[in-house]
TrEMBL record:
This is peptidoglycan glycosyltransferase. Keywords: Carboxypeptidase, Glycosyltransferase, Hydrolase, Multifunctional enzyme, Protease, Transferase. Its EC number is 2.4.99.28. PANTHER family: BINDING PROTEIN TRANSPEPTIDASE, PUTATIVE-RELATED, PENICILLIN-BINDING PROTEIN 1C. The lineage of its organism: Bacteria, Pseudomonadati, Pseudomonadota, Alphaproteobacteria, Rhodospirillales. Residues 69-225 form the Glycosyl transferase family domain. One of its GO terms (biological process) is proteolysis. One of its GO terms (cellular component) is outer membrane-bounded periplasmic space. NCBIfam families: PBP_1c. In the N-terminal section; belongs to the glycosyltransferase 51 family. In the C-terminal section; belongs to the transpeptidase family. It catalyses: [GlcNAc-(1->4)-Mur2Ac(oyl-L-Ala-gamma-D-Glu-L-Lys-D-Ala-D-Ala)](n)-di-trans,octa-cis-undecaprenyl diphosphate + beta-D-GlcNAc-(1->4)-Mur2Ac(oyl-L-Ala-gamma-D-Glu-L-Lys-D-Ala-D-Ala)-di-trans,octa-cis-undecaprenyl diphosphate = [GlcNAc-(1->4)-Mur2Ac(oyl-L-Ala-gamma-D-Glu-L-Lys-D-Ala-D-Ala)](n+1)-di-trans,octa-cis-undecaprenyl diphosphate + di-trans,octa-cis-undecaprenyl diphosphate + H(+). Pathway: Cell wall biogenesis; peptidoglycan biosynthesis. Residues 306-523 form the Penicillin-binding protein transpeptidase domain.
Length: 690
């Protein structure tokens, strides 16, 4: 007897092993078709996982991945009650349900209830087929296969992602966004019941087309919930009185310019189903877009705007507007190359401070000055005499900024900007020159946001971070902490634009260092500002680059900047104090050598600046015919003695004429006793002889 039992047990085990082996072989030979599962929508979320924007699949469907952890537990309970009460307890096919359905069919001669499990429905969603007996048998086999492969949690995730909810909607997340305008993690009883009912006949029960049919199907689910003890009768009575949604809402479309750029950067082979988690703050982004649309409606003509908001110390972009309204302009203006006007001046002064060639208290002449053939003016067409570097930056005076750039060197300035990650675009093939100080260069708003965030972060420029998993970029120290702090302190003292002095940003005691900029011809209006925790960059102008006469950074862009700061949380505290409070830049009086720009450091406490070294004759760019003694040389300013250099060859000390060897273009320069230099280019024209 014992031997018979052992033999039976052995045979049973062997048969089971053979069946399992055969099943595993068939599973490997005939794997389930997961094309619809892998072809999910790309989703872009904010830093907390809130949906910013999904992208439709290649076949035009909203198929948003949804897991059990994403949905309200009440919905899951109603789903199990309605579709598969023993889900998780059977291997994909429910034998008890099959026996019940067969018995009801034999007794009533009609189908009373089905035996389809959630796993079988998932198999049908993965590979839709006509409802035939052979298709039903294949669904059953596939259901067993899916349950074995993916388990209860995996199968439920597939169902929650692929279930149809009317029109192009697939999955619970797409359904709740379209029908209720929210995520599925918090649903009312009426909403949960409607979502359970819709997949049973998604087109017939679409609430926007057949609201009464949708209401009836929903209420049947609610009544069953009372019978099964899931909901109280009074709760169901209230839920049944709620209307069903009659409009299918569009999918969320927050930060459309930035999300589109991030989605387009995905490699095609890895794009489907990808979830891009950004650094954005969803609620802040929504408020910023509302502000952008309101501001856009008040701008004259076809003007537009762009805004970038950065968390200064982490360099994370937390809000972004590529235009005032995506529906009107899909071009990302934050990436457009435009002239910054005066917006680069703080970096010129920062480098000069860092070199200790300037101090905030250094006196700089704001007077008519010719730089070769270029003679810039101030924006107000006036000159203000001797001013400090601090005042010159706060008032955005042009002549002092050009003089400061001459101290730094335009080529060096452009090179350092490039090393910091700012892509400066120069017109044609021109080399960097002094006009850079006044906007003679192109730059993107995103790069300006990066530069100002770095300046506010102690002079350490880092790449902006757009995605949550992006590692911090390699920082570049543009200037030392002392120079950066000195410039930000100067900018904090800039006069506020009209109409913002009583704004919330000021009432909240948030100190904002900001700089405006207006490009030539009023084409671009800029304001970029930074507090202790946040950096905001604003551009206003026309997308086609045409001018808007009278629209300056101070009047067109600065008010918007302060309104954006009003949307932000309070700073966690004041700006971090400098590590070296005794640095020369923080002394009330500059060192003797830096009291006046252009003076000899050995001279005691000068009260006036020395006249600038410049060539009076020959004029820059002129064509000159030599006299018998040659070409007259005349210079003014500088500290004598002066020495002339022609085409790289020094002339005798005290020379007042130069006799060129030949006709053509030549380079003349003069150098004073302090090594300061002025240079011009001229064309020598000799008279023809018989």
């Amino acid at each position: 007897m014992i031997r018979l039992r052992l033999r039976l047990l052995l045979k049973t085990g062997l048969a089971a092993a053979l069946l399992l082996g055969a099943a595993a072989g068939l599973d490997a030979l005939m794997p389930p078709d997961l094309t619809r599962w892998t072809g999910r929508s790309v989703r872009v979320t904010d830093a907390e996982g809130r949906l910013l924007r999904p992208f439709a699949t290649a076949d035009g469907l909203w198929r948003l991945e949804t897991g059990p952890e994403d949905v309200d537990p009440l919905y899951l309970a109603l789903l199990r009650m309605t579709e598969d009460r023993r889900f998780g307890w059977h291997p994909g096919v429910d034998p008890a349900a099959v026996l019940r359905a067969a018995g009801q069919l034999a007794l009533h001669q009609r189908v009373v209830s089905g035996a389809s499990t959630l796993t079988m429905q998932t198999a049908r969603l993965l590979s839709p087929k006509p409802r035939t007996l052979s298709a039903k048998l294949e669904e059953a086999l596939r259901a067993v296969q899916l349950q074995a492969r993916f388990g209860t949690g995996g199968v439920l995730r597939m169902y929650l992602t692929l279930a149809p909810f009317g029109g192009p909607l697939e999955g619970v997340t797409a359904a709740t966004q379209a029908w209720f305008g929210k995520a599925p993690h918090s649903l009312s009883p009426a909403e949960a019941a409607l979502l359970v009912a819709l997949p049973q006949s998604p087109e017939r029960l679409r609430p926007d087309r057949n609201p009464e049919a949708a209401r009836a199907a929903r209420n049947r689910i609610l009544r069953r919930a009372v019978d099964h003890g899931l909901l109280a009768a009074e709760v169901v009575a209230s839920a049944m009185a709620e209307p069903v949604p009659v409009v299918q809402r569009p999918m969320p479309m927050l930060a459309p310019h930035l999300t589109e750029r991030l989605a387009a950067a995905l490699p095609p082979e890895a794009a489907a189903g990808t979830v891009i988690r950004t650094t954005l703050n969803g609620p802040l982004q929504q408020r910023l877009e509302e502000l952008g649309r309101t501001t856009l409606s008040r701008l004259n003509g076809d003007a537009d705007l762009a805004v970038v908001v950065v968390e200064t110390q982490s360099h994370r972009v937390i809000a972004h507007l590529g235009s005032g309204d995506w529906r009107q302009r899909k071009l990302d203006l934050s990436m457009a190359v435009r002239s910054p006007g005066s917006a680069l001046k703080p970096f010129i002064y920062a480098l000069a401070f860092d070199d200790l060639s300037l101090h905030p208290g250094t006196i700089i002449p704001d007077a008519p000055e010719r730089f070769g053939s270029w003679m810039p003016n101030n924006f107000d067409q006036d000159f203000h005499g001797q001013v400090t570097a601090r005042e010159a930056l706060q008032r955005s005076l042009n002549i002092p900024a050009v003089l400061a750039l001459e101290q730094v060197g335009p080529v060096r300035f452009a090179a350092l900007m490039g090393m910091a990650g700012a892509n400066l675009v120069f017109p044609g093939s021109d080399d960097p020159g002094l006009p850079v100080a006044l906007g003679g260069v192109g730059i993107r708003l995103m790069d300006l946001a990066k530069l100002y965030a770095g300046l506010a972060d102690g002079g350490l420029i880092s790449p902006l971070r757009l995605t949550a998993d992006a590692p911090p970029g390699q920082p570049y120290r543009l200037v030392g902490e002392a120079a950066a702090h000195a410039v930000m302190t100067v900018l904090e003292g800039s006069p506020l634009p009209d109409g913002v002095a009583g704004g919330l940003a000021v009432a909240r005691d948030r100190r904002i260092g900001f700089k405006t900029g207006t490009s030539f011809g009023f084409r671009d209006a800029w304001t970029i500002g930074a507090s202790a925790d946040y950096t905001v960059a604003v551009w206003v102008g026309r997308a086609d680059g045409s001018g808007r006469p009278g629209q300056m950074g101070r009047t067109a862009a600065a008010p918007l900047l302060f309104r954006v700061f009003d949307l932000l949380p309070p700073d966690r505290g004041p700006r971090r104090p400098p590590r070296d409070p005794d640095h020369a830049l923080f002394r009330s009086q500059p060192p003797v050598a830096l009291r006046v720009l252009g003076t000899d450091p050995a001279e005691p406490a000068p009260t006036a600046t020395r006249e600038r070294l410049r060539i009076l004759f020959p004029p820059d760019g002129s064509t000159v015919e030599p006299l018998e003694d040659g070409i007259a040389l005349k210079a003014a300013g500088g500290r004598p003695p002066l020495r002339w250099v022609a085409n790289g060859v020094p002339l005798p000390m005290g020379a007042t004429f130069w006799q060129p060897d030949s006709s053509g273009f030549s380079r003349l320069s003069v150098v004073d006793a302090d090594g300061r230099r002025s240079a011009i280019t001229l064309q020598v024209a000799r008279p023809e002889t018989d």
